[in-house]
Design goal:
By secondary structure, the chain is an alpha/beta fold. The chain has two domains: about 5-160, P-loop containing nucleotide triphosphate hydrolases (Rossmann fold), CATH 3.40.50.300; about 165-230, Helicase, Ruva Protein, domain 3 (Orthogonal Bundle), CATH 1.10.8. The chain has helices spanning about 30-35, 55-70, 80-85, 110-125, 150-155, 165-180, 185-195, 200-220, 225-230; strands spanning about 45-50, 75-80, 100-105, 130-135, 160. It has a five-stranded parallel sheet with strand order 2-3-4-1-5, with helices on both faces. Strand 2, helix 3 (about 80-85) and strand 3 form a beta-alpha-beta unit. Helix 6 runs parallel beside helix 8. The longest helix has 18 residues, at about 200-220. This is DnaA regulatory inactivator Hda. It comes from Kushneria phosphatilytica. InterPro entries: DnaA_dom, Hda, Hda_lid, P-loop_NTPase.
């Protein structure tokens, strides 16, 4: 088996729950299908995802890397918000991989060495047929890119705008995550969690993880009184 993404350089790990099955497509079904088939011969060479925080950018990039690993393909996830303090040498030799997923592109824009490194990296990936996914908080033409050649490259991919879920979507996402965990989450309990928890999906999912552990430990079903007790609400 090929090495998994977490075993590749830099030791950047992936969340176990960041999978395509764990993502609620909502209005983004076309993007999910592109990601699902990107490593096929007819797959999209370059995908550009943009949206606000909590819109699912990071989840989808990591899910694509998990899918590549399941297919015995080599992938690497690079969160530039965490890695941007390193020199851009880490972008060298990425064309030996099957998939490269670059997150938080906006965090290194305006930095000449990084922009040049990304421009040359993108060219090498294209020339070697390595699939590329890039995510940022803005559309390609709205990013503050100083290098015109890089700005041009960013418009070459298929671009998708991810929009945060509304409360109905958050409720569906919470119930989907519960099913994946094998949890029985009654509708009234799910609505209560949504009402009491911060609206960010990460906060909702963290609360669900705490409840999963607490209910297993106490051998209790999820009820509103138990949720109040377990989460201190």
């Amino acid at each position: 088996m090929m090495p998994g993404p977490a075993q590749l350089p830099l030791g950047v790990g992936l969340r176990d729950d960041a999978t395509l099955a764990g993502f609620l497509p909502d209005a983004n079904q076309a993007l999910v299908e592109r990601l699902r088939h990107q490593l096929e011969p007819s797959g999209e060479p370059f995908l550009y995802l943009w949206g606000a925080p909590q819109s699912g950018r990071t989840h989808l990039l990591q899910a694509a890397c998990h899918l590549a690993d399941d297919l015995d393909r080599r992938a690497l996830y690079l969160p530039l918000a965490d890695l941007g303090h390193f020199p851009p040498h880490m972008l060298e030799d990425l064309e030996t991989l099957d998939l490269v997923a670059i997150d938080d592109l906006q965090s290194v824009m305006g930095r000449r060495r990084w922009e040049e490194g990304l421009f040359h990296c993108f060219n090498r990936l294209r020339d070697n047929n390595t699939r590329l996914i890039v995510a940022a908080d803005s559309a390609p033409r709205q990013l503050s890119v100083g290098l015109p050649d890089l700005a041009s490259r960013l418009t070459w991919g298929a671009t998708f705008h991810l929009r945060p879920l509304d409360d109905s979507g958050r409720l569906d996402a919470l119930k989907l995550r519960a099913r994946i965990r094998g949890m029985e989450l009654p509708d009234e309990v799910a609505r209560y969690i949504l009402h009491r928890s911060p609206r960010q999906l990460t906060s909702l999912f963290d609360a669900l993880a705490q409840l999963d552990s607490a209910s297993l430990s106490a051998q209790r079903k999820l009820t509103i009184p138990f949720v109040k007790q377990a989460l201190g609400w």
